[in-house]
């Protein structure tokens, strides 16, 4: 039986974040360009939330780099950019992405819960959509505190419980749909993904797979995702306070409807019931 951390690593190694949205050959200049265009259209809030020029003359650490799109934006301005990720695939993709754009960066395969850096090394720590996927977020936050210089900044994105996606889509709609697919399977109808994978896991783990505590882990980044925690605002503030990281600002973003079709509606819903909490915190 492989341990949970290895399972997390294997999942992300097989599922390089966002790769499946792009048709161009991977890896290629075309692929990375299409990925950046796709990302900054779909996640349009990143363009205003992330103040990349504020990295001028600063040492930036990114935790969980994925394909490296945001990394390339920070690296354009930063004195130094360092990216860590638990998978070889993300390190490989981001290194190539940086090379193609002629940018400099240091890349290390490492676990967010034990950072291979000395204390007070960075001016900005950025982590987008990562710390809700790790085994112990408290460990990661205390590592962030350790490597940040005093009064320096953490910028974080975590999944939000105070959202349409959590209550309506995951806990209600997906549950109902899953039960329907289970019924279809019993009567030998053909089942499509992701329900086939959900049913496979359900057959192994039984009702606990479907329990209130477990179900959401498998309904954000795919059925095989091992850990996807979802937090409310108070839980986030509490965790950061415990790590001596003082929250300066929290904003919502990302609503799962096409922003191309209904841009204003998407922005309005995202602001109040979006699935992403962006958090800006300072080392006390
Ligand atoms: C959802 S992706 C987000 C990637 C990127 N930040 C983005 O916004 O596209 C999560 C990333 O976190 C990495 N990751 C997961 N657990 C980790 C850990 N314990 N330590 C470091 N990186 C981790 C995964 O390999 C993956 O690249």
UniProtKB/TrEMBL annotation:
Q: Does the keyword Transferase apply?
A: yes
Q: Which keywords accompany this UniProt record?
A: Transferase
* Pfam families in the cross-refs: Methyltransf_11
| One Gene Ontology term of the molecular function aspect | S-adenosylmethionine-dependent methyltransferase activity
**SUPFAM superfamilies, sorted:** S-adenosyl-L-methionine-dependent methyltransferases
Please report the name of this protein according to its UniProt entry: Methyltransferase type 11 domain-containing protein
Alphabetical list of CDD domains matching this protein: AdoMet_MTases
* Coiled-coil portions: none
